[in-house]
Design goal:
The protein is an all-alpha fold and about 350 residues long. The protein folds into two domains: about 220 residues, Citrate Synthase, domain 1 (Orthogonal Bundle), CATH 1.10.580; about 100 residues, Cytochrome p450-Terp, domain 2 (Orthogonal Bundle). The chain is about 55% helix and about 5% strand. A three-stranded antiparallel beta sheet has the order 1-2-3. The chain binds acetyl coenzyme *A. Acetyl coenzyme *A (ACO) binds next to α15. Belongs to the citrate synthase family.
Length: about 350
């Protein structure tokens, strides 16, 4: 085993964008509790906060929303590129390729907020376009009377979404907009630090997000609950996994050593959304039993649900297909990435760590 692993504990940059307080289970965006923002503010308002550092006035919000709406359409060359990709190309690879091809000279150094808005606006349209082209269904063009999240649901389903679905998905998206120096944000900042362009940095971040250790997938939680099947089966199923030293999906986190505040907020949303859904009853039971058994099998490790556990419930309740879970996470996290790129550009120094040579010297 190499003695230097994963940059754990290394501070790579100073940031004023978010605070991830793992000991106390708090997540702050620019000083505001993310869970409060998710309840009381819109996607546009919180994206503005992350990008500009303050909540918008009414006029600023209107201007920002309009700019997002104007950048939703996919250019023809990207449609051609998407259509050339083999059918079995996964959505994250499609997204990485399509976003990369946005990068003409208008995106050259130095990144600015208008570049950020363009890439934030177009990602949901790319996902929806590909979703329809692969399923041979009609792609409904972006609807400019709808806000960002409502328009995403509209483009996916071809019908006006209910206000409950919009609120639920926007809560999830706000809670996942930003999360400190995670792997994809680090990738984005490292690329930009060479004074490369914003699109190259976002392309790198999408590649990083694609890996199962990061973008993960709440779909694994859904698969786990499907396998458990019934409340009666839960304890035996969980014990057999833990006896075999397998992980319970949706539990544990590198930073949070108490309840992940995003999970707490999403649990509330899914309870409001799903009412008496037996699937949710099972999820609640699995959470309770897992915490008890994890404490028995892994005492002192402080393992609780992470963001993925109840994200699965919210995604399921808004009828999001499983293959779009990680792309949807990407559609929100791109806001955090671009906020970090603007911050990096303001006080840039090339990222250039060292490696410890352990090979032969002669
Ligand atoms: N189930 C059972 N045991 C667990 C779990 C779990 N979900 N998570 C951690 N542990 C145990 C480990 O086996 C380890 O035990 P040990 O001390 O006996 O070796 C101890 O707790 C510490 O765990 P690590 O894996 O070292 O913690 P790390 O910080 O490296 O990993 C991670 C965090 C990857 C999230 C891990 O908890 C995990 O694999 N969870 C399950 C998968 C999951 O839910 N992923 C989504 C993460 S959220 C996100 O990425 C957006």
């Amino acid at each position: 085993m190499p003695s230097v692993t994963g940059l754990e504990g290394v501070i790579a940059a100073e940031t004023a964008i978010s605070l991830v307080d793992g000991e106390n289970g708090r997540l702050l965006y620019r000083g505001f509790e993310a869970k409060d923002l998710a309840i009381h503010y819109s996607f546009e308002e919180v994206a503005y906060l992350l990008l500009y550092g303050t909540l918008p006035s009414e006029e600023e919000l209107e201007h920002f929303s309009l700019k997002l709406k104007k950048s939703r359409d996919i250019p023809d060359h990207i449609i051609s590129i998407i259509n050339l990709l083999p059918k079995d190309t996964g959505m994250m690879s499609v997204l990485r390729t399509a976003v990369s091809s946005l990068g003409d000279s208008s995106f050259d150094w130095k990144p600015d907020v208008n570049q950020a808005i363009q890439v934030i606006a177009i990602i949901p349209t790319i996902i929806a376009y590909r979703h329809h082209s692969i399923n041979r269904t009609d792609f409904p063009k972006p609807k400019n009377t709808l806000d960002h999240v409502a328009n995403y649901l509209y483009m996916l389903n071809g019908e006006l979404p209910s206000s409950t679905h919009v609120k639920s998905l926007s809560t999830y998206m706000i809670l996942t907009l930003e999360h400190g120096m995670n792997a994809s944000t680090f990738s984005a900042r490292a690329v930009l630090s060479t004074e490369s362009d914003l699109i190259s940095a976002i392309t790198g971040a999408i590649g990083s997000m694609k890996g199962p250790l990061h973008g993960g997938a709440p779909s694994e939680v859904i698969a786990m609950l499907d396998e458990i099947g019934t409340i009666e089966n839960t304890e035996e199923w969980l014990r057999s996994k833990l006896e075999n030293k397998e992980k319970i999906m949706g539990f544990g986190h590198r930073i949070y050593k108490t309840h992940d505040p995003r999970s707490v907020a999403l649990k509330k949303v899914s309870q409001e959304l799903s009412g008496q859904d037996p699937w949710l009853d099972l999820a609640l039971h699995v959470e309770e039993m897992s915490i008890r058994l994890l404490d028995e099998y892994k005492p002192g490790r402080k393992l609780y649900t992470n963001v993925e556990f109840y994200a699965a419930a919210v995604m399921r309740a808004v009828n999001m297909p499983a293959e779009l879970f990680t792309p949807t996470f990407t559609a929100s996290r791109v806001v955090g990435w671009t906020a970090h790129l603007l911050e990096q550009a303001e006080n840039n120094r090339i990222f250039r760590p060292q490696s410890k040579y352990v090979g032969p010297t002669e």
